Amino acid sequence: MRGTDQLDSSLDDAFMRQTATGNAAAFTQLVARHSRRCARLAARMMGNRSEAEDIVQEAFTRLWLKTKDWEPGGAQVSTWLYRVVVNLCLDRKRKPRNEPIEAAAEIIDPAPRSDDRMLAAERSIRVQRAVETLPDRQRAALALCHFEELSNAEAAAILDINIGALESLLVRARRSLRELLSDLAPTDAARTA
Amino acid sequence: MTHPTISAERVRAILAAYGGAPQRWPEDERGAALSLIESDPSLGIDMADARELDATLAQHPEPPALTINPLAIAAVARAASAPPVNGGARRRTGFWPRAASLAAAAVLGFAVGVSGVGRGPAPLDPEDALALMIMIEEEAL
Q1: All domains in chain A, ordered by first residue
Q2: A129-185 pLDDT, tens per residue?
Q3: Which comes out higher in pLDDT, residue A34 or A104?
Q4: Of A83, A59, A81, A77, the residue nearest A16 (C-alpha)
Q5: With an 8 Å Cβ cutoff, are B67 and A61 in contact?
Q6: B82 — contact with chain A (CB < 8 Å)?
Q7: CB B67 within 8 Å of CB B104
Q8: DSSP of A84-147, one letter per residue?
Q9: What pTM, to 2 d.p., does this model score?
Q10: Which of residues 26-55 of A touch B (CB under 8 A)?
Q11: CB-CB neighbours of B14 under 10 Å
């Protein structure tokens, strides 16, 4: 573990200890430190804002309940949280959904745009839909490694698989996306991003 | 061509899995992979290829800001972890999802910008707050 990671981890352990005594301010710190990434992960996996919000709320509720038997120096809070978020997302994806089709993917802001921005929005929708067609575990691996840029060891731990299996998920995900998006040449702006 | 610590085949496998941006590659193989790519033009082509897909994926929209309310979560979690006063099992199922939904809608907390800076506190919706309080009180009975 690198120095900054170790410091972050010790800080999280301290907040966990304080939260276990009922200190809501310490819990607020944990939420502030980790919710943004959890929210991004849930939103990318679910493609649906309200479901992503529910999942993040539930993950942090579970974190609060976990504080009483948290072992400092063991698992990292971030890894524990991402694993809960991923599992909640996978559970929900397994359940039949009755929502209307138009509610399924709502990440894009539909506000009126100029031609260039309309084109960029259309490209975004294409990419988003292509990612949504991936099998759930491939999408989870891509969200963790590509979009969140977690290390392969952390992503594998979150998905409870070995690194070879993680790489296999990633290779299949990227191969499918390459086929689905082969006609979508990246814009100069995206190329330099 | 084989590098002292990594093979061309392994570099291709890294590019196929992690894409063309070295910061996403396994840390312990990054240096050797970059060094081999510099000396092997065919790997440079594979890397450019992987970057092309990375650039396409960069067009994936940023997820929206979500409203996360730590105080409401704490209230819900406290209620859920409180031992039942009358010794009975919890009377209702589905408490967490409903309470969590209310917590999501409640106001005290702050919105967390998932793509950047978080927004400030939002006003508490009185109906949601009341429903949350009633639910927590009922659960504690």
Answers
A1: 1-103 (1.10.1740.10), 111-193 (1.10.10.10)
A2: 999 999 999 999 999 999 999 999 999 999 999 999 999 999 999 999 999 998 886
A3: A34
A4: A77
A5: no
A6: no
A7: yes
A8: HHHHHHHHHHHS---S-HHHH---S------HHHHHHHHHHHHHHHHHHTS-HHHHHHHIIIII
A9: 0.75
A10: 27-28, 30-32, 35-36, 39-40, 42-44, 49-50, 52-54
A11: 25
B70 three-class SS: helix
Distance in angstroms (rounded) separating the CA atoms of residues B29 and B13: 12
- 3-state secondary structure at position B47: helix
Q: In this predicted structure, which of A37-41, A138-142, B134-138 has the lowest mean pLDDT?
A: B134-138
3-class state of residue B5 by DSSP: coil
Nearest to B66 among A39, A163, A178 (CB): A39
Q: Which run of H or of E encompasses B30? A: helix B27-39
Contact A28, B70 (CB under 8 A): yes
Could you give phi then psi for residue B67, rounded to 5 degrees? -95, 115
Nearest CB to B68: which of A35, A108, A152?
A35
Q: Which two tokens stand for residue A63?
A: 């974190």
B45: pLDDT strictly greater than 70: yes
Token pair for B80? 């859920």
Interface of B with A in 17-76 (CB under 8 A): 17-19, 23-24, 26-27, 52-74, 76
Is the ipTM reported for this complex over the cut 0.85?
no
